[in-house]
Amino acid sequence: MNPVAKAWASVRSNLRRSAGQRLFDQWLKPVELIDDGDAEAIRLGLPSDFMAQWVRNHYAERLLLEFRGELPGVSSVTIETLSDSQPHRVLTATSNEARRVEPEPLTQAESSRFDPRFTFDRFVVDGSNRVAFNAARALAESGAPRFSPLYLHSTTGQGKTHLMHAIGQAFLADNPGMSAIYMPAERFMFEFVRALKARDTLAFKARLRGADLLMIDDLQFIGGKDATQDEFFHTVNEFMGSGKRLVFAADRAPLALEGFTPQLAGRLGSGLVADIRQPELELRRAILQRKLADMPDVAVPEEVIELLAARITSNIRELEGALNRLLAYAQLNGEAITIDFAVQTLGEVLRHVQRRITIDEIQRAVSAHFDVKQLDLISERRAVAIARPRQIAMYLAKRLTTRSLPEIGRKFGNRDHSTVIHAVRRIEDLRGKDGEIDGAVRTLLRKLEG
Predict the structure, then answer these.
(1) CA distances from 201 to 131, 195, 362 (A)
(2) pLDDT of 404 over the 70 cut
(3) Residues 130, 136, 141, 144: what is their CA dihedral angle, to the nearest 10 degrees?
(4) Which partner from 101, 122, 383, 437 sits 20 to 30 angstroms from 60, CA to CA?
(5) Is the pLDDT at 96 greater than 50, yes or no?
(6) Where are the strands (E) in 107-208, listed by range?
(7) CB of 344 closer than 8 Å to CB of 395
(8) Using CA atoms, how far apart are residues 26 and 336, in angstroms rounded to an integer?
(9) Does the pLDDT of residue 153 top 90, yes or no?
(10) How far apart, in Å, do the first and last CA atoms of the chain sit?
């Protein structure tokens, strides 16, 4: 058995113990080693795109770490679909999980690897992120930079890392003779401390300051690290003095960073500071549609897209993760994706992120929108002017709350659960035929979620 195959056997054994037999059998057991003789660039394959995507999302960094534990020289792990044998992603130790182990010394070649999925063309733009997007594109352009540094800040999972990878790829494409380095702040700190211990800080400084574009992610993690901040400050000054490009990303604005000296915080904010706000409903919907556009063979009903976009509001990463899970479960179970399948598959996720919307709140919103009395919604009146808003309210109650059908029926004048089912199906049907009804439902969804 060659060293790579031997390492793979050990990695599989470790994964079986840590993941548990059920998860291992379902997702990890089908993974195959594509042994092409390269002991540094490991290639793994799965029988379908869905399975490959799931393993990338959930076990990419873990696989890299496991292989490095067996073969320290491993630089990347590629997870492929066996049908086309083309790599989908090269993994580098940039995640939180990867940072917990001692990485290999940074080299220019390693640091310039960017995820090919994270390009400007694939970044969905709206008012919440337009300034950050335009600033990122401007900084990546050839010629003297209009501003530097660029400082991006937002809560986790809103697209900062995507923009940094897009900057790196666009900059190198336009400037093939130049170099770009991307690293998390903790990586910067680790490399600096190791250089201090080895009394080799000059080489560390030369390696970083020799780049034409330097990007540091998760900057908040060096708060309170005085020696690291001092070196970082000098690096920033060196880049700014030479007119080179700098990009930083953190979870808060420069002056709000904890454990940073006022001098360094001021320097970080001396260029352009661009925030990325929490994505609104239209952006969340557009992101899902953009992702599905890459999978033309997958059928996801509009109501399921609406469900995900409406319920998962905190960040884009969770939204994409929920969609990936839904697609994978549908493919593995051989089922069509429906609203019921989505609720059943993502029930725990949806309950976790859902804002507590009450049926009373829904009734008030519907009565105000249609200019009817709230008491009419629970009355026996069957006029269309009352019955249609009542059906919409029942539909929204089923969609936005965790109440059972009988509970919803009781809230609408002690109606039977079959009446609720009829109302939900009727509104679902009308939304596809009647633009006015669909517009009213969309408006109410936005109001209730806001």
Answers:
(1) 37, 5, 62
(2) yes
(3) 120
(4) 122
(5) no
(6) 150-153, 180-184
(7) no
(8) 19
(9) yes
(10) 59
User: Which SS3 state, helix, strand or coil, does residue 289 take?
Assistant: helix
Q: What is the length of the chain?
A: 450
Residue 374 burial class via C-beta count within 10 angstroms: exposed 0-12, middle 13-18, buried 19 and up: middle
Percent of the chain having pLDDT more than 70?
A: 90
Other beta carbons within 10 angstroms of residue 361's beta carbon come to: 16
SS3 184: strand
- Which comes out higher in pLDDT, residue 89 or 64? 64
Burial of 154 (0-12, 13-18, 19+ CB in 10 A): buried
What would the DSSP string read from start to end of 217-254?
E-GGGGTT-HHHHHHHHHHHHHHHHTT-EEEEEESS-G
pLDDT of 150 > 60? The answer is yes
Mean pLDDT of the chain: 83
Residue 95 binned pLDDT confidence (cut-offs 50, 70, 90): very low
- Alpha-carbon dihedral sign for residues 293, 299, 305, 311: negative
Please, are residues 398 and 311 in contact by the beta-carbon 8 Å criterion? no
Non-local CB neighbours of 160 within 8 Å, separated by 6+ positions? 132, 152, 153, 154, 217, 249, 276
Question: How many CA atoms lie within 13 Å of 375's alpha carbon, on the beta-carbon side?
Answer: 0
Q: Which domains does the chain have, with CATH numbers?
A: 3-91 (3.30.300.180), 130-275 (3.40.50.300), 281-353 (1.10.8.60), 359-449 (1.10.1750.10)
Contacts 24+ apart (CB under 8 A), 12-18: 14/66, 15/59, 15/62, 15/66
Using CA atoms, how far apart are residues 218 and 335, in angstroms rounded to an integer? 40
**Residue showing tokens 């696989």:** 63
Tell which residue, 123, 161, 131, 130, has the closest CA to residue 147: 131
Whether pTM exceeds 0.85 = no
- 193-202, 349-358, 425-434 — most confident range: 425-434
Question: DSSP letter string over 83-132?
Answer: TT--EEEE--S-SHHHHTS-PPPP-HHHHT---TT--STT----TTTHHH
DSSP codes, 28-52: ITT-EE---S-SSEEEEEESSHHHH
